[in-house]
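Figure 2 data, in text form.
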Amino acid sequence: MFKAMPIKFIKTFTCDNGKEFTKPYHSWERGTNENTNGLIRQYFTKGYNFENITKEDLALAAHKINHRPRKVLGFRTAHEVFWSEIKERCCN
């Protein structure tokens, strides 16, 4: 997923909490993460059998989520905001 992004912009990668993370947090402390989980649930509902998921299923859901206008971003998409930041930092 990070192949298209310049390496100098990759600093951290954050996942939802689980036993593999040593410092748990409260869900209300991670609003964006919890909101994104809700968006993902629109495509993969509770009880969805992830054993049958395809790369195409994941790519389509990611594309739809990343190209969805968001109020918090001034009704721009996450894709637009992310790549405009990358372009601005690389080209200025």
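Caption note: The beta strands are 69-70, 76-77.
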